[in-house]
Amino acid sequence: MLTNKKYSSILEVMYIYNNPKPTLADAWEVLQLEDKTLNIIEVTELKDLNPGEYFKLKPESKKVYIKGEYLRKEKRFSCTDFEDINKERFLKPTTVIWTQFEF
């Protein structure tokens, strides 16, 4: 369980609690601590996002991705980089993402 200490990012929380992979519940706890340095409005999983919507993998990340189609063989979603459409990543549906940000 998290304390009332204010954290600068989800990565700091995962480092402190020795959790290498952040979960959606951990991300919500960080946002509920009312940290003013995070300008992220919503944290969700990739499977809840509509195709064509923008997202970030980390709150402080500069890279913005666009959700693509689901590939049944890979059991992952195809996601392309906003700035370079030749870069493509395949992410699990349960990947924690950050949406509704300004860039």
What are the defining features of this structure?
103 residues; alpha+beta; SH3 type barrels; 4-stranded antiparallel β-sheet; two-stranded antiparallel sheet; 26% strand; globular; disordered N terminus
Tell me about this structure.
The chain has 103 residues and is an alpha+beta fold. It has one domain (10-99): SH3 type barrels (Roll). It contains 2 helices and 6 strands. The strands form 2 sheets. The protein has a 4-stranded antiparallel β-sheet with strand order 2-3-4-5, with no helix packed on it. A two-stranded antiparallel sheet has the order 1-6. The radius of gyration is 14 Å and the shape is globular. The protein starts with 9 loop residues before the first helix and ends with a strand. The model is unreliable at 1-7 and 34-40 (pLDDT under 50).
Low-confidence stretches: 1-7, 34-40
Tally the helices: what do you get?
A: 2
The third-level CATH topology is: SH3 type barrels
Distance between the termini: 32 Å
Given helix and strand content, the structural type is alpha+beta
SSE string, helix = H, strand = E? HHEEEEEE
pLDDT average, as an integer? Answer: 77
Please provide the count of β strands: 6
> What's the number of domains?
1
- Side by side, the strands of the main sheet go 2-3-4-5
So what's the CATH class? Mainly Beta
The percent range for strand residues is: 25-35%
- Biggest sheet: strands, sense, closure? 4 strands, antiparallel
Shape: globular
Radius of gyration: 14 Å
| Fraction of residues in H or I helices | 10-25%
> Under the CATH scheme, which architecture would be assigned?
Roll
